[in-house]
Design goal:
The complex is a heterodimer of chains A (about 300) and B (about 300). With about 300 residues, chain A is mainly alpha-helical. Chain A folds into 2 domains: about 60 residues, no CATH class; about 210 residues, Orthogonal Bundle (MetI-like fold), CATH 1.10.3720.10. Helix content of chain A is about 70%, strand content about 0%. Chain A contains 16 helices and no strands. Chain B is mostly helical and about 300 residues long. Chain B has a domain of about 160 residues: MetI-like (MetI-like fold), CATH 1.10.3720. The chains are: A mainly alpha (about 300), B mainly alpha (about 300). At the A-B interface, helix 1, helix 2, helix 5, helix 6 and helix 7 of A face helix 1, helix 3, helix 4, helix 5 and helix 6 of B.
Amino acid sequence: MTSTSVSIPRRRAAVGTTESTRSRPRARPSTVVAYVALGILSLLWLAPFLWAINTSFKSETDASASPVTFFPAHGYTLDTWAQIFRAGSVPLWMANSAFIAIAVTALTLVVSTLAAYAFSRLDFPGKKVFYALTIGSIMVPTQIFVVPLFDELLALNLVDTYWGIILPQTIAPVMIFVLKRFFDDIPQELEDAARVDGATRFRVFISIVLPLSRTILAAVAIFVFIGAWNNFLWPFIVTNDPNLMTLPVGLQTVTPGYSVIFALRMAQAVLAAAPLIIVFIFFQRHIIRGISTTGIAGA
Amino acid sequence: MTTSSLTPRGRTPQTRRPRRSLSGLLYIAPFFVLFGFFLAWPTVYGLYLSFTDRNLAGSAAAQLVGFANYVEAFGDSLMWRTLGNTLLFTVGSTIPLVIVALALALLVNLKLKGQWLWRLSFFMPYLLASTVVSLIWIWLFNPDLGAVNAVLGAVGIQGPAWLQDPQTAMAAVIIATVWWTVGFNFLLYISGMQNIPEQVYEAASVDGASGWRQLFSITLPLLGRTTALVVALQVLASIKVFDQIYQMTSGGPADSTRTILEYVYDAGFSNYRLGYASAISYIFFVIVIILSLVQLRIFSRKAGR
């Protein structure tokens, strides 16, 4: 499991044997330099987060000690972590985030997959116009229109509701594009055979096309989920009720800019970051592949 | 494009043209209902709002005011200031985000041991929510109690006040942004490098080309398309910056980091002037669309070669 996790399967098959010879570096001086450079850089990238974890286990006195030290003068403590779970809001926001991100992901998958399949396989009146609308809207940056969107949701009484947070996040035209391209490459014969046996079009879609598309569905799901879990601007605008807030929004609203409660802040940051990082460590290959396949078309 | 990596092999010509029927409309209906409500309508409604004096604070119904909002916007020095800041952030973040990503990817692509660790380090921050990034960097950048100035102090440099100083606030925000999002560009470069056929390098080795020579004559030129893609995506992402700046500085100090999207937010949700905010949105929208079209042209020309 060296470096092949994002490589292209087709290409790998073609070069199969040569890759292994290249991936075994000889211990030349330049290799040592490369190791040192990579080591320093990766430490630089990990340091902020590791230091944040470290600070979350300090007392507030030690966390704001001057001069700054890595190790606490009075030892490590679980006080701030206990405080977070006692105070209540953070676990609630976390549950909100999970619920909203899962709902956004599920809805996006359902509506995008259906539309992509229709654009790929079916013929219907207005197909060209609808597809052009979908592709054209990829260029529309939705963040720019938060003001009219908010005014609309005010009229619809959807401000401060789960639906108001979730529904506007489910429009992912670029995912329709990615999925359609995938469906285009599935051999038509597989579906024709089932159709001859009397299966309906929808039945074929559910029991043949979707199972064949697991990889791309997973990639789209991962990309949408990460986006929804971390989304800030829209949930921030549409929620005032602390009971409905997602984790990123909740953390922002309770923390005034510059007060000195560093240990608590870092514990909150670490807690908010933990779920995705843990998932990432376990599913690194899938996530990296998902991001690079959908992300190229999508970001 | 790498998307092909997930497609099944063996493309077959479509043997049977589907019958034209209305049932396809049922498949696209759920998406287009959402599309209509939450994308198409806000876009159209925003254009209408931009010609009104719609205000969230007043109880009076919105009146059409013609081009008054646009006239005001073009004479509004703060709008130009925020546009300038947006440009500064876009250029100032795109350059390091491309160069650092390329450098990291080149190093990792040497295929040294510990691949999972290198990828985890450089990509992990990308998984963090903007709020988390802001919490961490507000603390790191604290002039007296933060780690950045502590480290600088250890090597004898008196660090600035970072986020509290108009001279350094934008740089500080950019540093945090590079740390946060470089992992995405890094991944795109890694994918791009793995698309370069091994045989090219073998041929070069046989011809006696050194590692550096291969880097400059093979790797970098063949990454041209990837670089065009990374730059295009990064410019469009950077120009829409809001989250981390709003969270770290709220646009301050002295408006030195206030960007156009934050100005839209301020006009709409701090001053309740939805009409004026929509007008600025539309000015910004036109800029983004022009930029996208220009990039699309440049990029498709590159790709066509």
